[in-house]
Each structure stands twice: as C-alpha cells, then as structure tokens.
Amino acid sequence: MAKKTSAPANAQSMAKGQREISISEFFSRNRHLLGFDNPKRALLTAVKEAVDNSLDACEEAHITPEIDIQILAVPEHPERLTVIVRDNGPGIVKAQIPKIFGKLLYGSKFHRLKMSRGQQGIGISAAAMYGQLTTGKPIKVISKISARVKMGHYFEIHIDTKTNSPVIQQEEEVAWEYPRGTRIEIELEGKAGKGRQSVLEYLKFTAVSNPHASIIYLGPDGEKLKIERATNELPVEPREIKPHPYGVELGILTKMMHDTRCRSISSFLNQDFCRVSTSVAKQICDTAKLKPTSRPSRIARTEADRLYKAINATKLMNPPTNCISPIGEELLIKGLQQNFEAEFYTSCTRAPAVYRGNPFQVEVALAYGGDIPQDGTIQVMRIANRVPLQYQPGSCAVTQAVSEVDWKSYRLPQGRSGIPEGPVVLMVHFASVWVPFTSESKEAIAQYDIIIKELKLAIQECGRRLSRHLRGRELAHAQAKRRNIFELYIQELAESVHRLTGKPKEPIHEGLAAIAERATLRADANDRKEAKENKKAIKKVDKKALVVENGNGASNGHVQRNLFAEDEETD
Q: Which of 137, 309, 387, 500 is the most exposed place for a label (fewest CB within 10 A)?
C-alpha cells in the first residue's frame, strides 16, 4: 500500500507559520552568544555584568565604589550556585527596577557617545534570564536611593521571553541596613573554577583597572578576597559628544535627516554633529551641490548620497577626546603594584586616535620579575573600558598586536605563537566611546588596522623600557662578577705587599679594593660606549642599504620618512 505524503507547502500555509520573535526568545535559544555557553563561563559572565553595572552607577553618581560579591553553594542542588552582588551606588528608582532586570535591550548607554562599561542594555537582564532558564528561580533585587528612608524596594522578577517584558512575582518594602545602593541575587547553574578565567582572577584584574574600587569576595568554598582601593580619586568623568560625520553611514545619515528638528541642511550639519562649524557646513553643501537652506527631511536619496560623499571628501577635525577617561600611567602602575610583586614596573598612555569617527585611547602597563611565574608565556590582561576580557583571546586585536611585536629585541624569548615567554604581566587597556567587540558577549576587540597600530606602538614603548632595565641589570651583574674576580686576589696581594714593605695590611687591602671598583666601573663604561657605537654603526649600514634599495627615483626626504616610520612602528 502506497504511503501517503503530506501536501506541499504554499505561500498561504507558510504565511500562517510566520510570527515575530522577541529579543528575549532569540537569546534564550542562543545564550552562548551572550557568554552563557557553559556553567563556568556563565558564572563569570553573571558576576561580571553585575560588577560592571555597579561600577558605572557609582562613578556616574561620584561615589567611590564598594562592591561585595558572594557566591554560595545550594546544598540541595550541587550543580547550582547563588550569586549575590551588593554595591553602595545611588540605587534605582522603583519604577525602573522591573525594566532594568526584566527586559533585554533596555538601558541608558546605547545612544550615548561617551565611555562606559555597558553598551547594549543586555548584560544583567541576560544573567537573570539564564538563571530563570536553568533553575526556574526569579532574580531578587533590593534597592534604596536615599539614607533618609529605612525601607528599600524589594522585587522578585521573571522575564516573559515571548514578549520581552518583566513579570513581577513579588513586590514589597523591606528594612535594609545600608544607606543606599542595590543588591541582586541570582540562583543559576554554574561552576566555580580556579586559576585563569575564574571569578577570582576577574576580580583581581578589575582591581588593577579600577584602582579606585574596594572589592570584597566570598567564594563557595569559603575562599575570601579583600582588595582595598589604591586611590580615593574617581576617574575623570567622560563627557557625552555628538556623532562625528566620519562615523555615520549613508543609511544612518538619511534617518538622522528625517528625524532632525533642524530646518536647514546647514544647521543640521552644524548642530547634530561635532566638529562641523557653519563655514564647514556650507563647504559640504557646496561640494554636494545642495542649497544650505534646504529642508533635511525633503532631501531625496540621490541628494543624500551626494551629501554623504561630500562629507567624506571634506577635511574635518578629529572628534573631541573628553568623552573617554583613561586610567593614567601612575594609577596603572599602582594597580599592578597592589596585585603583583615585581622588580620593575612601567606604563605608557598613547595620545587619542580615531576609528570610524569614534575616538579611542590605548594604555599599556608592564610588570617584570619578582613573584611573577618564570615559566610559560607572559600573562596578558586585556581590558576594554576598564572591564577585563577573559575569553576569546585568539580573536582579539590585543593578542594580534602582542604577537606581532618583535619581543626578542626586548630580551624576551618568543615562540611560534608570537606570545613571548618570561616573568611578565602585560596589561593593555582600550578606552573608547564604542568598543568594537566581535560578538554580543563582549570578549574580543575587532582587529581594525588603526587599533592594532596604536596597540603595537604602546606595547613597543613599554618593551623598550623593559629592555633598558634588563640591560642595566646585566651590566650590574657583569660589574659584580668582575669585582668578585679582583677580590679573589686582593687578599693574597695585600698579604704579599705587607710582607715586602712591612706596612699595615688593612690600608693596603682598602686601597686595592678602591682600585678594583674604579677599574670595573671604567670597564663597564667602556662596554656601554662600545655598545652605543655599534648601534650607531648598524643604523648607518641600514640607512645606506635603504638608500640603495630605494635608489630607483626615491628622494632623500622619502628615505628619511621611511626610517622615521620604521623606528616608531617596529623599533
């Protein structure tokens, strides 16, 4: 008997099966995109999102952060953990609590062009959703905005993933002993690990990049960590800026023209963008062959295309840089000193640069020797807007920049992977109004050429300083070795002179020791002079070779510029 087959689908039947998908429903099925792909990483991501929100809130309210993190085991469910994070921030008004913790893509930072840890409004609500999916338990929140009241607002919140909206399961006012702040509690499926990519490592790195924060941690195994702040000074508050014309694509430009309140193209360019003066706006309009008084909302597609090309053909100033807040060279070193015992520290902060109209700044700090492990590759701390990145290092611009630097010239061995070996902690901080992460989990920085170039230049500067330190240490060791050789014979020589002349032995010994010290110092000075002369000779040879190589029509000025660029970029 022939088997019946189902009727083929048609347009009408396919239309009946189509429906809208909410953002919560999408991420509930693709939670790996947000960093919740395994229990260990899920625990770290939940802690990270909560701590980032606390630090941002405290800094915006000009409050020195005090953050208390607890991870407790759930006795009846060994695979589950309870994450509790409390801060001393400004708190959250009652009406906003359900939306912040029970709705994805809800926040105040996405449309602001200024440096902040969060960007998308996904993080903490995604952690709440993960806890709900793996344990069925709601997120519990207590918040208080003023010390003048004794009661705090308490919520238990579920997320309706079909509608991406909060469902309040419990709401009441509770007595809370803290003057202000927010406390969250999430029960989730998680695993507490140790070593690299652990919560403990993340908190240590957070303390290095946020030396103004005080952090207390209690782990599920009773592990305790208390990190006192290295400074009482809060970071310089970044200022919000308007979009830069170079960072706006054609579709966004068209939308902005239809949404603007300005009545002319000239005023639109001048008021809705930064770095566009009235005269520059007129120049752009002239290049695009548009009347400066034309209505932006009535601009046709072809005219918008001409305007977009005219903007990119006009020379504009780089965007202002007061929208980013670097850590600073002094505080970078303080952060490393507080967490790593080393013999040498250095740091470098580059001047701001721009990618796609977005200003950014690169900072690098380096610690060498001391208690830092001698074996294996160096420890690279990747930081973006003061937030440590612990996963996906292979896709990150920081890792690429580190591997492209010639570390052998800085006296560190370098394997095939490109990551050098030795007792080094290298901290790289990338600060920007919009960090170009490679995914929603915010663990790797996109590999733009200008970003990699700035990273390499900062790393090379710290490498040069490390090389000078190691060279000085080698010279000191050689000096001590030479002096030891002389001292082996000083005693015997002083005894012989004493027997021959009858003079006291002690003055003879002291005089010979002084001669040995002068001789070793003079020998070291000669070594340094010889090394300097050799370096000059090598540069002369390289310069001659470059002149010969570029002899086919290359001018001397061109050769000099090539040399300068090579010195700066490759050292």
A: 500
- Both structure tokens of 353: 């640069």
Strand partners, 171: 155
Phi, psi at 492, each rounded to 5°: -65, -40
Which pLDDT tens digit goes with each residue over 448-475? 999 999 999 999 999 999 999 998 888 7
* Residue in this structure with the two tokens 């090309």, named with its chain if needed: 309
Rounded distance between C-alpha atoms, residue 351 and residue 457, angstroms: 11
From CA 157, how far away is CA 99, in angstroms rounded?
10
Token readout for 456 is 């390499």
Given a contact cutoff of 8 angstroms between Cβ atoms, the answer to whether 215 and 225 are in contact is yes
C-alpha to C-alpha distances, 523 to 451, 467, 518, 520, 534, nearest whole angstrom: 44, 21, 9, 5, 16
Query: Contact 124/168 with Cβ under 8 angstroms?
Result: no
- Structural tokens at position 33: 């995109």
Q: Please give the radius of gyration of the chain, using alpha carbons only, rounded to the nearest integer.
A: 31
Q: What is the DSSP string of 360-423?
A: EEEEEEEEESTTS--SSBPEEEEEETTEEE-S-GGG-HHHHHHHHS-GGGGT--B-TTS-BBSS
Structural domains in the chain, sorted by start: 23-227 (3.30.565.10), 245-313 (1.10.8.50), 329-467 (3.30.230.10)
Phi, psi of 322 (to 5 degrees): -75, 5
How many CA atoms does the CB half-sphere of 206 hold within 13 Å? Answer: 33
CA 160 to chain centre: 33
